[in-house]
Write a structure and sequence with these properties.
The protein has one domain (about 15-114): Alpha-Beta Plaits, CATH 3.30.70. It is about 35% helix and about 35% strand. It is built from 3 helices and 6 strands; from the N terminus they run ββαβαββαβ. The chain has helices at about 15-25, 40-45, 80-100; strands at about 1-5, 10, 30-35, 55-60, 65-75, 105-114. The strands form 2 sheets. Strands 3, 4, 5 and 6 form a 4-stranded mixed β-sheet that branches. It has a two-stranded antiparallel ribbon with strand order 1-2. Belongs to the asp23 family.
Length: about 110
């Protein structure tokens, strides 16, 4: 993500955005783990990736940033409320840190754990 300032340009890598999202998700109530997609090859490739990279995908266009989350929630909690809370937390954290408003956060629930 390139940001133009009066002094030049600032390049923010997707890994930085993933780290911000990871911290916002971990601080949210109800998230047990960030799991990633549950396909066979996704599980195998997750052995070589960092834990914060597994279930967080960040893609960007010229006008927006799209964040896809694949999460496992705690059993017994209201799923819709927890997902909305995580969306709001991630959106607020990324908006305030990057000073960029056009952010979309998609939450996919991979499972429930006791």
């Amino acid at each position: 993500m390139l940001i133009e300032t009066e002094f030049g340009t600032v390049d923010i890598k997707n890994d930085v955005i993933k780290e911000l999202v990871y911290k916002a998700v971990i601080e949210s109530y109800g998230t047990v783990e960030i799991s990633g997609k549950q396909g066979f090859f996704d599980r195998i490739s997750s052995f070589w990736s960092k834990s914060e990279d597994r279930g967080i995908n960040v893609s960007e266009n010229e006008e927006s940033i799209v964040i896809d989350l694949f999460l496992v929630f705690e059993y017994g909690l209201p799923i819709k409320k927890v997902a909305q809370n995580i969306q709001e937390n991630v959106h607020h954290r990324v908006t305030s840190m990057l000073n960029f408003d056009n952010i979309k956060v998609n939450v996919s629930i991979s499972g429930l754990k006791y």
